[in-house]
Every structure is written in structure tokens, then in C-alpha cells.
Amino acid sequence: MNSAIYLRVALDTPLASLFDYRFDPAILPPEQQVQPQPGQLVLVPFGRQQVAAMVMDVLQETDVPPDKIRSVLATRPQLAPLNAEWLALTQFAAAYYHRPVGEVMLPALPKNLKALKTVALDKALKKISKQPAQPVWQVSTAPVLNEEQAAVVDAVCQGNGFATHLLFGVTGSGKTEVYLQSAARLLAQEPDAQILILVPEINLTPQLENHLRTRFPGMPVATLHSGLSEGERTLHWLNAHLGHARILLGTRLAVLASLPKLRLIIIDEEHDVSYKQQEGLRYSARDLAIWRAHQRAIPVLLGSATPSLESWYAAQQGRYQLRTLTKRAVEDATLPLIRIVNLERERPSEGLSPRVITAITKRLEAGEQSLLFLNRRGYAPVLSCEACGWVSPCPRCSANLVLHKRDHRLRCHHCGLEQRIPHTCPDCGNIDLQPLGRGTQRLEEVLATLFPEARVFRIDADSTRLKGSAEAAFDKVHDGEVDILVGTQMVAKGHDFKRLTLVAALNPDAALFSQDYRASERLFAQLMQVAGRAGRAGGNLTPAEVLVQTRYPDHPLYHALMRHDYPGFAKDILLERQQAGFPPYVYQALLRAEAAELAQAVAFLKEASELLSHPQIMVHDPVPMTLTRLANRDRAQLLIESAARPALQAYLREWIPALRALRSRVKWSVEVDPVDI
Ligand code: ADP
Ligand code: ZN
Ligand code: ZN
Fold first, then answer.
1. Which residues on adjacent β-strands are paired with residue 337?
2. Which of 330, 335, 529 to mutate to test the pocket of ligand 1 (most atoms within 8 A of CB)?
3. What is the CATH number of the domain that holds 640?
4. Is residue 622 in some structural domain?
5. What's the domain range around 21?
6. What is the reported pLDDT for 458?
7. Where does Zn(2+) 2 bind (predicted)?
């Protein structure tokens, strides 16, 4: 009689990811001889490597022939199993995004859990065991909620079971306060509950973390984002997994954390594209969070001043419950006045119109802050030769190299290539090469010349490359050490600057005519966000003002913006989308391909498009991607869509294996619900 036990495990491998191994206690040290359960980690041999694997099933028999089957090398009995809900969540994500389950599960776990040596894991577990199991925390004084806010907290906390609440609140309307008081109410009702709070950007975690620590002294709060060291990540992840952390605050990857007592999910700035992972498993953290809430029958709260059109549409259909905050929470903090500056009439010099310069001067005199928003980092987008028309191209991409003057470099923002700045034109030898256009660095330089007495400060991806430098930079603004802040979209989001009364958007027009049908939705959200940084504190500061420089002063987007009219804007755009047959009225998937030559990529896509036809599926023609060449590879894409999500999913289940069977040498990937097409 064969009494061997086999484990079916998931591995982080690209194709099939389930494999059977023998569990042979006799070859393991005594503490590892207990038979592992589904949800536990083990180490197995794979090829010549030893890799971590997730136990999915315990089997009495296997189809693998006895001379082929290999044995489990080690188990991790010290780590409590991931529960069935977590396994179901990751299995759902794998099925929905059409990836092997191991590729979803294993990368979601901290490295120290999967390492061959257990030193780091054991150290973290030991550290955690010294926390009190029943922590006590206080709730410090909080502002009294206004009626609108109170209604949202009531709805979120009194509801029974699954509900998606869409909190549509203008900037500064006190959404954060709603999150804090919902958390407080819930934890008062159920002290061992867990709450997951997602923010779109790592830069927004310190601010919210501070709010949480000040509001809830003694509360175990864990954080998960890409800025943690492996040791920290292990500790925070385990705290959530073991049910100690009451609140887990994190970026999109935190949606896959293990939270056995999860009772509420909050997603701040739910419209933000950062919730979409853009490589590997291309998941939407917002969508997975909603699925997770449904699975656990708990509420999920999505907050935004400019909801995604998907969410807005869902609210109109009654699938989500719309909760609205119509005014700013701080007494006498009114929404800023948004004004359009017509650049045809008010000629800018160095990118700044006279009205913007006057407005800055006024803030400087009053000791208040100005924010100049320019969504383009670097000194100038290109270096050019006026004699022959040469502009600095990236030799590897269909894009130009950006001038970074201070570092004496030309840089490609797409592939990362760097070059020294040429002294003469490579084509004609002209020595007079000029920067063309304007980036944040040049703007910073211009402002320093115009306002020599002012403290000008720039925040963008270049100025905050070092760990901790972004947080320090934002602190500087909060502490009033900055008069004029220059920044990209990094400064647009979420920050609660108290002395900021002027925002100027210098060059937003480019996005108006983009090929990407989502560009206007994004532009509106971005401008609304950045405008929302102004005038948040009220009091006797200069009335808050937002100046938008444009050559298209009559564009409907700017008019909706001036009226702070997100619902009006959303209505127009939804109508356009319906007429054009775009999401949220259809469901899409995108097949991307890259090859040394465009023709190869397109040929593969053409073949792919003819593999399978289905009456409910529309397969478009292959087209080159907007940025066709990236790092010496040409890229093309094929869009498929359907009015029915299940039909699209069923199609993908059949189509993707057929694509694999082509065994093409072209590199390809499929994205479900793409946001960038
Ligand atoms: P949002 O997240 O909607 O942009 P915040 O939650 O940051 O807005 O709130 C903006 C400001 O209003 C903060 O300074 C906050 O402390 C304050 N605030 C929020 N709710 C109230 C309230 N009910 N009473 C007084 N001040 C409030
Ligand atoms: Zn030239
Ligand atoms: Zn490049």
C-alpha cells in the first residue's frame, strides 16, 4: 500500500504553475515533519534551483510517475497558513488577468518568507511576539463632522455586508476625516477588526500615517509600499497577516496583503491611474479591492473629487452608492476661484503670463505660497539646432532626449539612456544649440531670476530620487520654508498645504488633443486636484485663486473646470464614450507585441487576430503603439472588446492558450481592462 502524501503547489513560473511534490517527513528535521496545509509555504527543487512554493492541495496520489516525482525540501511551520480567502482572492486575480496563479501569489509575499534561510523570518516573528496581543489605543480629539460627513460615516459603518460607497467630495471637503472617523467607529464596535487603506502614491503615505498615529495613539498601524526595506516589509506584512495591525496603509500592492480580520477597505483618490499596475500582473488594485470586499461581505469606500468614469457610471446605475460632500470642511475655506488666462491675448515671457507674475508677486508680499504646476520634468524637452532643424533624438526610442542642464546630460525619459550634451550640432556642426520648450528645471531658473528674494523650490521625480527626500521636500513646504513651489503631478495630489493661495497651471493644453481617449478625463482630474491645493485653510489669507494658461480658452473642459463642475464634465464625456463605444460601455483587452522590427510585431498580431472569432467579440486591426520604438524594440497592439465582460473573459480563456501555441518569438502580453491604449 502506498501511503505517501503529495503536495500540489504553485510556483512563480510563467506557464503552468501547479506542480506535484512528495512530502517525505523522514528527510526533514523534526520541527518540519508536520504535514503542511493549503496556504502554507514550502521549498521545493525546480530544475536546478530551490524555490518557494505555495501549497494549494494535499493529495493521496499523483499522476507524476514515481521516478519523476521530487520531494519537498523544507517547510515553514512557523508561518501560519494564508487563509482560504486569500487563496481565493489571488486565484481570482490570476483567472481574471489570465496569469498563472503562482505568479500572483508568490510575488505578493515578502522575500524573507521565501528565502532558503529562515533567519530573517524567525527574527521578525520573535520581534512580533513581544507586542502585546491585545493592544490598547486611544482616540484623540477629532473635529465634529458636518452633516454630510456624518451621513457618510453612518452609511459606511451601519451598513450590513457588501456595499461600494463612492465618496464624491470636492477637494478639502474632509474626505480624510471621513476615513479616520469611519475607522474609529468601526474599531470601537469591533476592536479586533482590520481596515485596509489604499493611497495612490508612496508620497502620500507619510501624511496619512501621521494623521493615523496622531488620531489613534497606541494603535498598531502597518504600512506596505515600495519604500520599505525587506526587514520592514516582513515585519509589517506579518503584523497584518497575524491580525495584529488594525490598520494597514499602503499603495496598490497592499491590496494583496493577508488581512484575516478585514472589515473595511478605503481607497483614497480612487480615480488615480497609479492603482493600475503597468507591468507583470497588470491588475487594478481598486477593482481587486472591490472584489475582495464583495468576497468578505464588507463595505468598501472609494473617495475622490474627480471619480473615475467607471465608478461614476456605476454609481449612476445604482451599483455603487453615491455619497457627496459638496463644500469645504474648514469654515470659510471656500473653493478657489478658477480663471482662464488666454495666452493669445496675454503673451507669456519664459512661459509666464503677466497675470501669473502679478499674482505671484501678490502672494510674496502677503507671505503666502504659490504653486506652479508644469507636468514636464527636466530643463527643456529637447535641444535643437535652428540652422538645420536637428532636435536631440533618442537613438533607441521614437522620442526625443530631454535636456537636463545642471547634470550636463541629455536623458531619455522612456528608456533611461543618457548622453553628454553635444557642443555642436551632430548634423551640421552649428555651435549654437538651443533648448526648446520648458521643463520644471528651467522654470525654477526663470523664477529665481524674476524673484531673487523668493525661496523657489522644485519637487519632481528628479529632485526626489533619494530615499526620504520626497518626504523631506514636502515637509519643507508644510513648514513654510518655500515661497514658490514648482512641481509636476507629484505635487498635485492629496497634500494639505495650509498657506498656499495661488496655483497656476502653466501648460496644460498638450493633453487636450491627445490620441488617448482617456487624456481629457486625466487632465480634468489633474487640474481639479492641483487647483484643490489652494485655499484649504481659510482664515484671513488672500482669496485662493487658480490660473490656467491656455491657447484654447473656450474649450468645454476648461469651462467645466471653472465651474468646479465634475458632474457636468462627466456627463459630457460619458455621452461621448457611449457614442464612440468606449469604456465603461464596453470591456476591453489589449494584446501587446514587441520585436526588433515593427513588421514582425504586426505580423504576429495579425495572426493572433485571425485565431478565433466570436459573435460577441470585436477584434480590431493591429496598430503601432503611440511610442512605437522603445529601447530598440518596435511595439504594436491589438485591441479586442465586447459589450459583455463574461464573453470577453471566455474568449480570453480560449484565445491566450492559442496564442501560446503559436510559439512566436515575438514577445507579447495581454492586459485586461487596459487604461493606457
Ligand atoms: P480632503 O481629503 O477631502 O481633500 P481633508 O480631509 O484633508 O479633505 O480636509 C481638509 C481640511 O478640513 C483639513 O484641514 C481637515 O482637518 C479639515 N476638516 C475636515 N473635516 C472637518 C470638520 N468636520 N470640521 C472642521 N475641519 C475639518
Ligand atoms: Zn544643425
Ligand atoms: Zn530612449
1. 545
2. 330
3. 3.30.70.260
4. yes
5. 5-108
6. 96
7. 394, 397, 412, 415
Say whether 157 counts as a known binding-site residue. no
Residue 415 assigned ligand-binding role:
yes
Asked whether residue 54 falls in the same domain as residue 97, the answer is: yes
- Average pLDDT (442-462) is 96
Question: How far apart are the CA of 520 and the centre of ligand 1, in A?
Answer: 28
H/E element holding 321?
strand 321-325
- Expressed in angstroms and rounded, the spacing between residue 536 Cα and the centre of ligand 1 is 9
Q: Is residue 388 a known part of a binding site?
A: yes
Q: For 536-581, how does the pLDDT look when each residue is reduced to its tens digit (9 = 90+)?
A: 887 878 889 999 999 999 999 999 999 999 999 999 999 999 999 9
DSSP H or E segment with residue 209: helix 205-215
Q: Is the CB of residue 587 less than 8 Å from the CB of residue 644?
A: yes
State the average pLDDT for the chain. 95
Residues 173 and 311 in one domain: yes
The domain that holds 367 is classified in CATH as 3.40.50.300
Same domain, 352 and 461: yes
Residue 120 lies in a domain: no
Are residues 625 and 547 both part of a single domain? no
- Average pLDDT estimate for 334-358: 95
382-398 pLDDT, tens digit per residue, is 999 999 999 999 999 99
Please state the atom number of ligand 1 nearest to the C-alpha of residue 494.
4
- pLDDT reading at 43 higher than 90: yes
Distance CA 365, CA 250 (A): 40
Q: What is the CB < 6 Å shell around ligand 1?
A: 143-146, 149, 169, 171-177, 329-330, 496, 536
List, in order, residues 6 or more apart from 396 with CB less than 8 Å away. Answer: 412, 415, 417, 629, 630, 631, 632
Which residues in 408-476 belong to E strands, given as ranges? 409-411, 418-420, 433-436, 456-459
pLDDT tens digits, 620-640: 999 999 999 999 999 999 999
Instruction: Report the pLDDT averaged over residues 133-150.
Output: 92
Distance (Å, whole) CA 259 – CA 113: 16
Spacing, Cα 432 to ligand 2 middle (Å): 9
- How far, CA to CA in Å, does 560 sit from each of 341, 467, 493, 563? 15, 39, 20, 5
Give tens-digit pLDDT for 54-64: 999 999 999 99
169 and 284 housed in the same domain: yes
196-245 pLDDT per residue, tens: 999 998 888 988 999 999 999 999 999 999 999 999 999 999 999 999 99
Instruction: Select from 576, 604, 629 the last residue of a domain.
Output: 576
- Which pLDDT score is estimated for 1? 40
Does one domain contain both 272 and 162?
Answer: yes
Q: Is 428 annotated as a binding residue?
A: yes
Q: What is the largest CA-CA distance in the chain?
A: 92
pLDDT digits (tens, 9 = 90+) for 70-91: 999 999 999 999 999 999 999 9
Domain assignment of residue 582, yes or no:
no
Ligand 1 atom closest to Cα of 173? 3
Q: Which of 554, 576, 598 marks a domain boundary?
A: 576
From the CA of 141, the nearest ligand is 1
Residue 581 maps to a domain: no
> Are 95 and 225 within one domain?
no
Surrounding residues of ion ligand 2, Cβ less than 5 A: 385, 387-388, 390, 425, 427-428, 430
Is it the case that residue 585 has pLDDT exceeding 90? yes
Q: Is the domain of 60 the same as that of 84?
A: yes
Number of domains in the chain: 5
- How far, in Å, is the centroid of ligand 3 from the Cα of 345? 37
- In whole angstroms, what is the distance from residue 508 CA to residue 511 CA? 6
Find out whether the peptide bond into 584 is cis, omega within 30 degrees of 0. Answer: yes
CA 141–ligand 1 middle distance (angstroms): 14
Give kind and range of the element (H or E) at residue 312: helix 309-316
